[in-house]
Amino acid sequence: MAEAYGKPPNQGRILTIPGQIVSLLVLVTPLVVALYMSFTDWSPTRSGLKDASFVGLENYQELLIYDHRFLQAVGRTALLAVICLSLEFVLGLGLATLFLRTFRGKRFFFSAFLTPMMVLPVVVGYTFWMLFQSNGPVNQVLALLGLQGLEWFRDSTLAFVAVVLTEVWHWTPLFFLILFSGLNAVPENPIRAAVILGASPRQVFWKVVFPAIKPVIIVAFVIRAMEVIKIFDEVFLLTRGGPGSATETISLYIYKLAFNDFQLAYGAAAAFLVLAGSLVMVHLLLIPVRDQLLERRD
Amino acid sequence: MLNRPLSYWQIPVLILALALTLFPVFWLVMTAIKPPIDWNASPAIWVPSEPTLINFRTLFDPAAIRAYGVGGVSQAATKAVIGSILASVSATFLAMALGLVSAIGLSRYSRTSWATPLVILSGRMFPPAAIAVPFVIIFSLTSLMDTYPGLIAIYTAVTLPFSTWTLKSFVDDLPREMEEAAMLDGKSRLMAHLTVTVPLIKGGLFSTAMLVFILNWSEYMFAQVLSNTELSTIPVQLAKYVTATAGTLYGVQAALAVLAMVPLILAGFFIQGHLARGLTFGAIKK
Amino acid sequence: MPDGHKPGEESLGQTLESYDAGLINRRTFLKRLGLLGVGLAVANAVSLSPLGAVKAFAAIGGPEERAWALAKEEAAKATKKTLTLLIPTGSIGNMTPYVDKWKNELGITLEFIEEPDEVVHTKGMQEAVAKTGRYDVMMPTAMSYPDWLDSGLIYDLTDWVDKYQPDLFHPEWGVVFPASHHAQLYNGRVVGLLCDGDQITLLARRDFLENPDKAKAFADQYGYPLDIPKTWKEYYNLAKFAHDPKNNFYGSLEYRSRYYCKWMFMQRLASKGSLWFDENLNPTFNSPKGLEVLEDMLAVNEFLHPDAYSFTWSSNYNAYGRGEGLLNIVWPSGFKYSMAPSTGPATTGKIKATVMPADTLADGTNLYAGMFCWGYGFAISKYSANPLLSYAYAQWMTSPTISADAIPYLGGYSDPYRVNHMLEPTERLVSTYTKEYLGTLYNNIVNTVPDFCLPGGFEYQDALDKEIHACLTGDKKPKEALDDAARVFERITRRQGKDKVRSAWFALTENLAEPIKKATGRANWKL
């Protein structure tokens, strides 16, 4: 044992170097370029990057103070994230608990429920666009239930709901998968003990199982939160950010800035603000489980 | 965990959940076998009365769809399929290999702090649209535009944070004693990791590989930005069917989408066992 | 026979002279020219030209000949024997028929890089940064030209145009004015050669209009005969009258979707006698006239197709072709679609078209204005290894003679844009578009106003489009929407540089139909 503690960590740290080299070359370099860009007023229509003038924090100021569209996109994306993640969590957890039971064809069902995750985002986008057409299957079914002619792409709220439904359909399987893994890993003994002590299934779940999987839930949220903030393909194909800009997420706005308007420096600044926000969010999410995840198994 | 069957009310819930989950996929498959006249019909047609394989054929023989009076794209999808496979498999392999090595290094041989996950994950948090042009600048200077190595490098770099962090949590979950025991037995450090660490996180490895592969397979923006004539992936090809001659080729798009789905679904089916237990992130106390 | 030649053996020159002298009629003339290997487009135009056949023949073939001569010269010198074209997906049909000719006669391989519509602008931007030299010819919409030129991506073509004379502004076979200026110039310099006449026109179902029961009911209700509308008021009445949702038949399929709805706004505004900036580049759409336009559009909302709010051009054409509405406001491609049996099963043979409706000005006159929007053209990359060869291709493809041949091919985006396409069409053009519609295209194009072909054009159009869409979908009141858009316009102008945009705007609006210039006050502007 003393040997284990005595070995200097440096020797093994070399293992992290390959990953760091790749990240440095391929990830950090463009990030540095983008950071430099964000302090200039560069647009190819004016000059090359080398000759662009340095404007300091002007872009950041403009974004945070005057650019209502940016701030609205941020708020909208945050709202979308909260709603989608909550729904995905609830549905994923529900499904996972169902799968703790035994039933026939479980293997088939399991694969079936994972399918949405395997569909390309662009495909999800335009498939749901087809589904939500005024005479598409969704409205046809709703008409049978008494709800006539919902205009999914005309009404801002409905458009937002359509985006939520699309995203939730697409990624609930991931929550399901992670939560199911977590539930499977909960040790049996505390459960048995609780049952023997007379706890109802509901109490067993909420008092024993749920606390045990809390860290896994947090991790699932972190993983999906990072992605949902960047959501682009599905929304672009579904609504293009409309009606008006009712479903315009951060990524859509940055895409417009960079790819249509050539406002590359401004877009880079916006992206760094998003990065900062995401870092804060992930940090806050990880606080409850910080110790658990960092703890060494000594 | 309690080995009970489903309660009565849970059965219809499960069936409803299945229906809702599979309906869009069903719609996609149906669209893939619809003749052009049915593609955008109003009211929408659920099951075509005359299903056809013309959409699938058009993927590989672009002019085939003209027989129905609609224009086609001029390119076959073959290159895109091969490109997707090449880029996704390579990038996934690299991200997993580098991620595993980094994960072991971080878990066993480094001091990690509260900032570690943030640093690792930050690479995934940056909106792709804003980093695309910096990539263009760098890649055009290094002649990597429109090349597979360039795309694979990007894919590896952006999924490396995910694979590193995830695999690290699985390695964290393993008590050090397991490797120490192997080393006491006379194995070198490297062999200890290979014969002990890796097999014990097998479930996590498979699950992570699957998720990383899905991320690479689905990626659109970087592939679009980098591609010209040499580079082609499935999402890029799909985008071309949107404004093909005579308008959106809904059926052909759907056919390609179905083809793109099948390998993932099959893979998911075969590694089910690993998936069902893999993603614990080392967070459950044993 | 003059000169002792037998019929059929007359030379070309003699045929031309005979025709000018009135010795043979037009039909014979065309037949003989055909036998002599002259293309129909040339023959047609020549036969009708006031210059006289001899002079006209020398002139009309000119652009094509000069381009071909330049191409030959450049192809021989070229080390890179490939010409790479960046084109939007769906446009290739007009260009593939000539691939063999270029390969066999010039040794040049034409390579096409197809990208989705919106991506062409982006790829251009990336090329401005990356400078790879991958593209020789690029095919954007006219709205890309200002930013592309300012980024140093494309050539100013004016000098080449002066030298090789594509006859862009020729009264008989030039690009129709004012599209010739809207869609090819930036600050008065030629930056692109138009290859696609994208103007919007009004379509209606002839079978509905000619239905005697409907005609009687309409005349009884409105007091004037049932016919295709000439004013926006008539348009409203007709949409209301025809609207029959129970039978899946809607008054109009007018676009209400993002990116498209601004064009609907802009041309109604123009027909009310207002442009979108004044001479000092202040926004003018947030005015009483602009509010009127939005009120008019909101009023029509209840008679529109329910999918109007998410229409792409493709789904709009599909819906109209399925027979789901009476009226539609679309590009010439939409007319082609509705007429073809495979894409317009319910509308084939049943389409009547007209110029965009007019609005009534304060002095009682009707002002006709249309939109020239989208419209692809050829630009030459500054990083091309073969710039002159690329220019030769562009001039050749858009020459009066070749373009008349290229447009009718299926699977492309090209629509008529030169005078001879519309007024002296070949048989193929007539069978694709009908003589009547070609006349309509001409009558409409002379009254078009341009899109935001300015520096920062994409930003401006998006800012306006977003607010208009928000208003039309009920999220914002008209005044709020237009004021918000105006505020963003000010910010964009500030960032782009007011003087820069202003001079471009002056140059752009210099060329408009006289009634529009008068009604909008443009005639009195001073730079």
Shape of chain B: globular
Largest sheet of chain B: none
Determine the structural class of chain B based on helices, strands and strand pairing. Answer: mainly alpha
Helix content of chain C: 40-55%
CATH class of the domain at 88-227 and 257-278 in chain B: Mainly Alpha
Q: What is the CATH-assigned architecture of the domain at 88-227 and 257-278 in chain B? A: Orthogonal Bundle
CATH fold annotation of the domain at 88-227 and 257-278 in chain B:
MetI-like fold
CATH level 3 topology of the largest domain in chain C: D-Maltodextrin-Binding Protein, domain 2
- Radius of gyration of chain B, in angstroms, nearest whole number: 23 Å
| Main sheet: strands, sense, barrel of chain C | 5 strands, mixed
| Largest interface, chains and sizes | A-B, 119 and 112 residues
Number of strands of chain C: 15
Question: What is the structure about, briefly put?
Answer:
The complex is a heterotrimer of chains A (298), B (286) and C (527). By secondary structure, chain A is an all-alpha fold. Chain A has helices at 2-6, 10-13, 17-38, 58-66, 68-98, 106-114, 121-131, 137-144, 156-185, 188-196, 201-228, 233-239, 250-260, 264-286, 290-294.
Attribute tags:
heterotrimer, A: 298 residues, mainly alpha, MetI-like fold, globular, C: 527 residues, D-Maltodextrin-Binding Protein, domain 2, 3 domains, 5-stranded mixed beta sheet, 11% strand, disordered N terminus
Task: Please explain how this structure is put together.
The complex is a heterotrimer of chains A (298), B (286) and C (527). With 298 residues, chain A is an all-alpha fold. Chain A has one domain: Orthogonal Bundle (MetI-like fold), CATH 1.10.3720. Chain A contains 15 helices and no strands. By secondary structure, chain B is mainly alpha-helical. Chain B has a domain of 162 residues: MetI-like (MetI-like fold), CATH 1.10.3720. Helix content of chain B is 68%, strand content 0%. Chain B has 14 helices and no strands. Chain C contains 26 helices and 15 strands.
